[in-house]
Design brief:
Layout lengths: L6 E10 L7 E11 L4 E5 L6 H8 L7 E6 L2 E2 L7 E4 L11 H5 L1 H5 L4 H14 L15 H13 L5 E5 L7 H18 L2 E6 L2 H7 L2 E5 L6 E6 L8 H4 L3 H16 L7
Parallel strand pairs: 3-8, 3-9, 6-7, 7-8
Antiparallel strand pairs: 1-2, 1-4, 4-5, 9-10
Helix pairs in contact: 7-9
């Protein structure tokens, strides 16, 4: 994708003020440089600041200190090159599927008619051809999440921010969505930042896995994943390189007390 974005996270910290006076430090001096067109997964324990980092990059929350840049532009509000997919699909129940996908186009005041064919093409690519005029309640959870991804992609984002997008899905649907996401990314080659609790999911999807420490979140490990693509979920668990990288992440969690070794 020619407009794949570069991302720089420079000494970013985030502290939340709470009424009791005990401020919560979510992130502590995080540095990251994400190359255009790369797929980066961030894993870490609950409360380590993974979602906070994504929210900061999305321009939804201000940093406490440090700087965030997308293609050199400091992030102080939602960036036009960034699309976001959350764990909940957040579809509007009163809008048809095609209208949900086209919502960002309308919000930005762009030509809806010119984007309608692209929206149908995206829906077809995720197995939802013919569902244009259905409503969210008529679709399964996995189908709704596919619509949410199409809604993010209709903007042709140079940066796709994904916050545990498959966390609420059943195991089989999740596996299919993982494969679908890999297929879409191999075609688009945009920059993806993918937040997940799943070690296997992170190693399977990413070029690079960032392991965060318990709160306050810091970068504990930065792994390059050197497994050829396309990758197949069936059989990946027997791949020695896959096993090695999963073990590296687990050992870091064990060293930090996040996982207890038996």
């Amino acid at each position: 994708m020619s407009n794949a974005a570069n991302v720089r996270v420079e000494g970013v910290s985030k502290t939340y003020e709470v009424r009791a006076g005990d401020d919560v430090k979510a992130l502590d001096r995080v540095d990251l440089d994400i190359a255009p067109g790369s797929f980066v997964a961030i894993v870490g324990p609950s409360g380590c600041g993974k979602s906070t980092l994504l929210s900061l990059l999305a321009g939804l929350t201000p940093v406490s200190s440090g700087r965030l840049r997308i293609d050199g532009d400091e992030v102080v509000k939602p960036h036009p090159k960034a699309g976001v997919v959350f764990q909940s699909d957040l579809l509007l129940p009163w809008r048809s599927i095609i209208d949900n996908v086209l919502l960002p186009i309308e919000i930005k005041g762009l030509d809806r008619a010119a984007s309608a064919s692209r929206a149908r093409e995206l829906l077809a690519q995720v197995g939802l051809q013919g569902f244009d005029n259905k409503f969210p309640f008529e679709l399964s959870g996995g189908m709704r999440q596919r619509v949410a991804i199409c809604r993010a992609l209709i903007q042709e984002p140079g940066l796709l921010l994904m916050d545990e997008p498959f966390g609420a899905l059943d195991a089989l649907t999740r596996e299919q969505m993982i494969m679908d996401l890999q297929t879409m990314w191999l075609r688009l080659r945009n920059t993806v930042l993918f937040i997940t609790h799943g070690i296997d999911e992170a190693v399977f999807l990413a070029d690079r896995v960032i392991v965060m420490s318990p709160r306050p979140g810091r970068v504990d490990l930065d792994l390059t994943i050197d497994i050829p693509r396309p990758r197949r979920w069936s059989g990946i668990h027997e791949n020695p390189a896959f096993q090695h990288h999963v073990r590296q992440v687990r050992e870091m969690f064990e060293a930090k007390g996040v996982l207890v070794a038996h």
